Amino acid sequence: MTPAERLKELLNDPEYQKELEKFANRVSNEMDRRNNFCEKIKNYISELSHDEFLKLIIKFAVWETKYEERLYKRHICGDSDLSRCLFDTIWEIGYKMSPSQEMFLERKYIYKGLTFKLYVGQGSFVRIMKGKKLLFQST
Fold first, then answer.
1. Can you give the pTM of this predicted structure?
2. Which of 6, 121, 128, 130 has CA 20 to 30 A from 25's CA?
3. Residue 62's domain spans which residues?
4. Over the stretch 74-115, which tens digit does the pLDDT of each residue have?
């Protein structure tokens, strides 16, 4: 039996159809959960003053750094769902700046007095700046 014939047979199998449907539901539920989480973050940070937002970002930077270090000790390069939702929210509601001539700078947004920059090269990382002071840089 050729691989194409085996694939056709698998796709027509009712058991396989059930497994595909369960997988699709699980992915859909996870996406809904993440979207709800991001919406809560968006609503929360929208209500904060500039000073409250700065304090929150400093707390976030400390927490996220520890989280990334714990992952790194386990030989995992990654970040948290919280950071992904936070940055996705900033990319959505922040003021988009035209990228400067910095190498590998993909996005630059300003939100409540802070600058959020996404760099993409052979890897990617995010920097949060207040003026010229670095508050956070992801790994």
1. 0.78
2. 6
3. 3-137
4. 998 888 889 999 999 999 999 998 867 888 998 899 999 999
Measuring CA to CA, which residue among 125, 116, 96, 114 is closest to residue 48?
Answer: 114
Torsion of CA 97, 99, 100, 104, to 10 degrees: 140
pLDDT of 78 reads 84
Are 108 and 97 contacting, i.e. CB atoms less than 8 angstroms apart? Answer: yes
SS (H, E, C) the chain: CCHHHHHHHHHHCHHHHHHHHHHHHHHHHHHHHHHHHHHHHHHHHHCCCHHHHHHHHHHHHHHHHHHHHHHHHCCCCCCCHHHHHHHHHHHHHCEECCCCCCCCEEEEEEECCEEEEEEECCCEEEEEEECCEEEEECC
Which residue type, as a one-letter code, is found at position 29?
Answer: N
CA separation for the pair 64, 115 (Å, rounded):
17
**Exposure of 82 in the CB half-sphere (CA atoms within 13 A):** 13
Both tokens assigned to 85: 């939702």
Copy the structure tokens of residue 131: 């003026």
Number of domains in the chain: 1
